[in-house]
Amino acid sequence: MRKNKIIILIVFLICIIFMAIGYSSFATDITINGTTEITGKWDVRITNINAVQVPSGCDAGKPTFTKDSINFSAKLNKPGDEIIYEVTIENLGTIDAELQTIIFTEEIDGIEEINYTTSELKKDLNVGDSTTFNIMVTYVKSAESIPDVKTKTLTGIIQYVQKDDS
Q1: Is 57 left (phi over 0), alpha (psi -120 to 50) or beta?
Q2: How far apart are alpha carbons 9 and 2 in whole angstroms?
Q3: Three-state secondary-structure class, residue 160
Q4: Who is most buried in 6, 35, 39, 148, counting CB within 10 A?
Q5: DSSP code of 8?
């Protein structure tokens, strides 16, 4: 009986060895190599600013811009005067954009006789699209006197983000 058990054990070990050899001869290593490159380009920018309405006796200055900021200095003469600046924003990149935030803040200690208003901006700015909007600077028509403080500053943020296509 003991001899049978030893023979069975030897046969069993030989089978395991042959199975291991057989498995390794049928095994294949597969190698996967990959490279990924981001080719998209984000480029939503200001491309122009012009004074499109300047009343007689007023000065729109020489408005300037960079890709992400504009500067202007308006000089209004009398109540009712309004200078309008037209700003152009373009999507020169390869990623569609959508308007997320518009925040315009007037100087807290500014004068009430000057108002800033803006026209609406295009919400979706797809690749190659542009939008224009106006900034209106107005010397309030109902002003009854010339104030002691004669300037008021406007600060604005317009934020476009990647368009969510889901």
Answers
A1: left
A2: 11
A3: strand
A4: 6
A5: H
Question: CA dist 114 to 6, 70, 158, Å?
Answer: 106, 19, 22
End-to-end CA distance of the chain: 74
pLDDT band at residue 14 using 50, 70 and 90 as cut-offs: confident
Q: How far, in Å, CA of 112 to CA of 9, rounded?
A: 102
**Class for domain 44-145+152-162, per CATH?**
mainly beta
CA distance 128 to 97: 11
Domain ranges in the chain are 44-145+152-162
95 burial type by CB count under 10 A (0-12 exposed, 13-18 middle, 19+ buried): middle
Which residues lie below 8 Å from residue 73, measured CB to CB, with a gap of 6+?
61
153 close to 90: Cβ distance less than 8 angstroms = no
* Tokens at 110, concatenated: 């500014």
